[in-house]
Request: fold
Amino acid sequence: MAEEVKKAPKPVDVNSAKYKLGKIAADAYVDAIEAKKRGEKVAWVSSNFPVEIPETMGIATVYPENQAAGIAAAVAARRAGGARPRLRDVSVREVQEGILAAGGYLMPYLDITPDDPRFAAVQRIGATGIMRGDGRSVGWSNETWFRIDDPVREDEIFLDDYYPGKSLSDLGLPSLDSLTRGDFAVIIDSLLHPFESRQVTLTGALAE
Reply:
């Protein structure tokens, strides 16, 4: 059997549109990383958001869907083991776990950061909708807060999507007395693992 002849990689054309657009995207991420190190604000925006607004205000911007796409590709390639990767086989939860492992946000809560030991649990529980953040309009911006250190209330815990007809005591959860919302998010995450137990669709709905 003849040896397989590997094709030499094509030289990079620095004048091509593909190269120039890739460099623009890479430079934008470098700028955002450096801005965060300096303690400046960084805006996470979707691709249809008018980026001129934060740019005019001197706020670095990044696109979370780009990060998600990269993580999905990495998961697919690792799973393929040398075969052709299949992105359709990568679940939303796997991508979300990859984002969390990289210190990224699933939910844009302003009152908890990745260096907080409760961060991943709060992000997972927020993503399930079992506990939800508060949206606030502040000036020109929309902010979302988990109210991490507020006392937890039973009417702010939404179990029905994951555990229909079950109460806190039915699920073996402790009394809410003296617990903060952050504490209780960690308890739900560690005892029930709802995030890992149910897959979601690309629109965020629970998969059947």
Q: What stands out?
A: The radius of gyration is 21 Å.
